């Protein structure tokens, strides 16, 4: 549709979800939120999809909530009420999610970046938790952002609202890598290819493992982790992977090409 704000495309096991609302810097308007959520549901439900890439058109990845829609609305009518669902969809997706940024992200846009598993941006991309500067709180996005950032950086950047660059975003844990613009496609493709080599069920279980609270000591976790491990070693997927390794071939879940 010509008037859609989010495009969905699947090629070779990779679902690419593209924010396409450059007129308002890909702000999280009601229409964009709805279409983004629908696209994430579609990708999560499609067994042919192995990896999800979240990207954008225009010079800005995402400027955060649409402030024009927020102005004058009461608490019950604020679009931010729908945002936790999107962050949850990204964070809990059984398929790995890669964020691809050719430009800046602000506020809620950074929340989405933090909710993905891998995030890559161009050197020129900038970031800011701008909420306090308009008198609001980065509350919802704190749930995905704070697990990524060092504590000192979180206090500084949440409280000041200062802009920081991609180099620092890598240093504090928000991004995996920052590259020259001409290398962005190749860097994202490198991550996508690596992620697609993993077994689909193993990747989903590993994502869940990474999100769980750690036991107080290793001894407290060995029983549960051993059960998880042996279950996968004996599973159909695990046996296929072991057999493929012995036969020096790719497992049957690796996309062609």
From TrEMBL:
The name this protein goes by in its record: Enoyl-CoA hydratase
Q: Which InterPro entries match?
A: ClpP/crotonase-like_dom_sf, Enoyl-CoA_hydra/iso, Enoyl-CoA_hydra_C, Enoyl-CoA_Hydratase/Isomerase
As for family, the record states: Belongs to the enoyl-CoA hydratase/isomerase family.
A single MF term (Gene Ontology):
catalytic activity
């Amino acid at each position: 549709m010509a008037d859609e704000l989010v495009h969905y495309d699947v090629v070779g096991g990779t679902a690419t979800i593209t924010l396409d609302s450059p007129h308002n810097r890909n702000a999280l308007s009601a229409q964009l939120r709805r279409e983004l959520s629908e696209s994430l549901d579609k990708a999560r439900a499609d067994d042919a999809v192995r990896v999800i890439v979240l990207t954008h058109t225009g010079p800005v990845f995402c400027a955060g909530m649409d402030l024009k829609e927020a102005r004058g609305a009461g608490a019950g009518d604020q679009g931010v009420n729908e945002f936790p669902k999107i962050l949850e969809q990204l964070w809990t997706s059984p398929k790995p999610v890669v964020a691809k940024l050719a430009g800046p992200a602000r506020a809620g846009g950074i929340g989405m970046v933090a909710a993905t598993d891998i995030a890559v941006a161009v050197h020129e991309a900038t970031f800011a938790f701008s909420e306090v500067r308009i008198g609001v709180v980065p509350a919802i996005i704190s749930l995905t952002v704070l697990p990524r950032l060092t504590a000192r950086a979180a206090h500084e950047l949440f409280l000041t609202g200062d802009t920081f660059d991609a180099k620092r975003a890598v240093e504090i844990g928000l991004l995996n890598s920052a590259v020259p613009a001409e290398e962005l496609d190749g860097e994202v493709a490198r991550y996508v290819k690596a992620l697609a080599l993993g077994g689909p069920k193993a990747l989903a279980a590993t994502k869940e493992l990474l999100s769980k609270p750690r036991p107080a000591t290793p001894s407290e976790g060995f029983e549960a982790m051993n059960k998880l491990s042996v279950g996968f070693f004996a599973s159909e997927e695990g046996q296929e992977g072991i057999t493929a390794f012995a036969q020096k071939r790719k497992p049957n879940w690796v996309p062609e090409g």
